[in-house]
TrEMBL record:
Protein name in UniProt: AAA family ATPase
Pfam families, per the entry: AAA
Keyword terms: ATP-binding, Nucleotide-binding
ATPase AAA-type core domain mapped to chain residues: 295-365
Top-level taxon in the UniProt lineage: Bacteria
Gene3D superfamilies assigned to the protein according to its UniProt record, in alphabetical order: P-loop containing nucleotide triphosphate hydrolases
Presence of keyword Amino-acid biosynthesis: no
Length: 373
């Protein structure tokens, strides 16, 4: 299921669906779903997670923003499981509505230490009993892995990271909003970017969510604000790379610098890379020519594997991402797999690129190698 099919899925007597989204964009998805449900299904949207004290109705304000309004009829239980209570509330709810339940997937996930068979049974019961009603549930969170008994019941979709075109449109739109806000405050807000520079800035932001891009633009504008106003120019491009580098490093991904000194020997590998360099051009992509998937470099320490990886990025003229496997390994069941999938998803959004997975044997030697698909 794709995100674009979510509304039609819920409108087809499928009462529960799951949406996997990176945390920064959760509010964006809630806002989108609220607007779509109001317009296409004439259905109110409600939000609940363990962090809120009550059930909240999601509303779209006059300026297009998202507003949460507490539901007065909902009374948080002083005793008992709040999650079981909200399930009972939905089951007994007299009207129609879409209920977004955030971050409950650990209680119904495979191999999860928080797995609750009581909650799992409640979800299965709700799936069957909500079918003839106009009440729907959307499970929202990051790294959702449903229990085997729910996989064939609950449709699942993963929100991808934005493409270059989506980022370009978002940057233009967001800068326009910032410009209007500056006018209201009687501040000078100038944008001095050529079309090619807009595209370069968008490529520099590949791998970030739209919300993270908005955060970057607001932060950088604030930092560059002077008495004369703000100028958005080509200086924003290296700042975007720096901002992205800082965020990716928290995920165990480093933006590496390609080598400036060529490696010695390995003439066949150099020739193989040089011949395939044209496969990463726009012309080759327009012809749907296949691209090389990767190479495996094996050998004892000090034999030049890392230097060779950096040279590959230089020869192919592609950005270099270094994936630190050790930082992705977690102690909780499923944590390592989730971290690796999230890192690979980010690398896929930045592609074409050279993904340098150093010491890959650490990931393939233990249980993660057996479970990761």
């Amino acid at each position: 299921m794709n995100l674009s099919n979510l509304l039609s899925t819920l409108d087809s007597q499928i009462p529960i669906a799951a949406v996997d989204v990176l945390s920064p964009d959760e509010a964006t998805i809630i806002q989108w779903l609220t607007a779509e449900a109001n317009n296409k299904l004439s259905s109110p949207v409600f939000f609940w997670n363990l962090g809120v004290s009550t059930l909240e109705q999601c509303l779209i304000a006059a300026d297009g923003g998202l507003v949460f309004k507490p539901v007065a009829e909902y009374k948080k239980p002083q005793h008992g499981d709040p999650l079981l209570y909200v399930f009972d509330y939905i089951a007994n709810f007299s009207g129609n509505g879409i209920f977004i339940l955030g971050d409950i997937h650990p209680f119904i996930a495979k191999n999860s230490p928080q797995l609750s068979w009581e909650i799992l049974s409640k979800v299965k019961n709700l799936y069957h009993r909500l079918k003839p009603t106009d009440k729907r549930i959307v499970l929202l969170g990051q790294n959702i892995q449903l229990h085997e008994s729910l996989v064939r019941l609950i449709p699942y979709c993963e929100v991808p990271l934005p493409s270059i075109d989506q980022i370009l449109e978002h940057i233009n739109s967001y800068l326009h909003d910032l410009q209007q806000s500056a006018r209201e405050q009687e501040l000078t807000f100038a944008v001095s970017l050529e079309n090619a520079e807009f595209e370069t800035l968008s490529r520099a932001a590949l791998g970030l969510t739209l919300e993270e891009i908005s955060d970057f633009l607001r932060l950088t504008v604030k930092e560059n604000l002077t008495n004369d106003g703000v100028l958005v120019d080509a200086d924003f491009i290296p700042k975007a790379v720096e901002y992205k580098t800082r965020l990716l490093s928290q995920m165990g991904i480093e933006l590496g610098k390609p080598a400036t000194i060529p490696f010695g020997g390995l003439d066949l590998l150099r020739e193989w890379l040089t011949r395939r360099r044209r496969l990463f051009t726009t012309e080759a992509r327009s012809l749907s020519l296949p691209q090389p998937k990767g190479v495996l470099l094996a050998g004892p320490p000090g034999t030049g594997k890392s230097h060779c990886a950096k040279n590959i990025a230089s020869i192919l003229n592609l950005p270099l991402l270094q994936l630190d496997i050790a930082s992705l390994l977690g102690s909780l069941v499923g944590e390592s797999e989730g971290n690796v999938r999230r890192a690979l998803k980010t690398a896929q959004a930045i592609a074409p690129c050279v993904l340098w997975v150093d010491e890959i044997e650490k990931a393939l030697s233990g249980s993660i190698g057996e479970r990761l698909e």
